[in-house]
Amino acid sequence: MPESLNDIQRQFLNSVEELCEEISQILISDMDSSDQTTQIRRLSIEAGIWSFHHPSDLGGRPQSSLVELVLLHESLASRNWTRLAGVIGPSPGLLANVEEPLRSKYLKPLLAGEKRAAFGFTEPDHAEKQTYGTIEGEHLRVNGQKSYVTGGDTADFINTLVQIEDHGPSMVVIDRSAQGVNVQESFGSSDGSSHVYITFQDVCVPISHVVGKPGRGLPSAMGQITDTRMVLAAQSCGLAKWVVDFVASHIQAPHRSGSPLATREGVRLRFSDMRIKAFAMRSMVYRTARLGDLGENVINEVIASKVFATEEIGKVVDSAIQLVGGNALQTGHPLDDIQRLVRSWRLAEGASDILRLNLARGFLDLEKGRL
């Protein structure tokens, strides 16, 4: 937990908290939103936070850890800033360890904010087969389709999971403007994010656009997803803190009945359950982060943390709405916005029940994981 940080982690947390205080002043200023984002980005760069997810040889922190990742994303979420632009720069994702020409053509522009990436992982339910590729000399010909490509409408390229014949699953970088790449449908979801359904028809890309070795795409994809799952767990913890504080202020405020809601036993019972859930979430997530920093394989622990935290924050928000009342369901109310957001997290980066099956397999079949 944050109460037992080492000196380096404590210094990092202090830097994050100082940055958050400066950002708070910007957000209450008279600047328009674009100027606010510019100023936030400048402050974040100066604080060394913007490049947190960047590789160390491209300006990232030389020894960033899972605990620091949790501290950063929990701190931001505890202010209800899970989607505040300008604070954290793009993550390299699958491109973190690529070599030329991918490094110069895609990774560096991505980190500089000059290009945007999307992740094509899942086929639509009606797809007859997985997206596949055939090697033809120095090129790869790709055919297939991907659904729910988040951010695909504005992406410059898509990191796509492709089954390469005679090799297996591989990650391939495909320009969205390449001939044969077609966005069939754009749609939004209840959390405010945008997605596309995209098809690939005889898309020809250089074989150098395969990330790493052909047939090694699934481990690469899982590595990216594992990191993102930890971010979602940390954000769940931060939002739980924000929601609990919001409700505490609400139930202690004067009420039309003549006494604050906090004086009622039923309200206190529900409020205490919210705090219990938040404490359990944070304990679980920080323990997982510490195990990871010790060099342990925490794939299964990250799964457990993601499932538990994203489900518990949903319960915390539901209790908050019950205590605040109907106003919390009005469009634009922070609890209504948070409710929509956290519901999507139970599906993001692996639906909860699928992850439960993976967790059981990890122990029963592979003897991995701990309690």
Which descriptors would you attach to this protein?
371 residues, Butyryl-CoA Dehydrogenase, subunit A, domain 2, seven-stranded mixed sheet, alpha/beta, Butyryl-CoA Dehydrogenase, subunit A, domain 3
How would you characterize this protein structure?
With 371 residues, this protein is of the alpha/beta class. It is built from nine helices and seven strands; from the N terminus they run H-H-H-H-E-E-E-E-E-E-E-H-H-H-H-H. Helix 1 packs parallel to helix 3 and helix 6 packs antiparallel against helix 7. The relative contact order is 0.10. Strands 1, 2, 3, 4, 5, 6 and 7 form a seven-stranded mixed β-sheet that branches. The protein is globular. The two termini are 17 Å apart.
Question: What order do the helices and strands come in, and which of them pair?
Answer:
Layout: H1 7-27, H2 33-47, H3 66-77, H4 102-111, E1 117-120, E2 132-136, E3 139-150, E4 157-164, E5 168-175, E6 181-188, E7 194-206, H5 217-252, H6 265-293, H7 299-324, H8 334-345, H9 352-364
Parallel strand pairs: 1-4, 2-4
Antiparallel strand pairs: 2-3, 3-7, 4-5, 6-7
The beta-strand count equals 7
Tell me the CATH architecture of the largest domain. Up-down Bundle
Rg, Å, rounded: 22 Å
The rough form would be described as globular
Q: Tell me the CATH topology of the largest domain.
A: Butyryl-CoA Dehydrogenase, subunit A, domain 3
Could you name the ranges where pLDDT drops below 50 across 5 or more consecutive residues? none
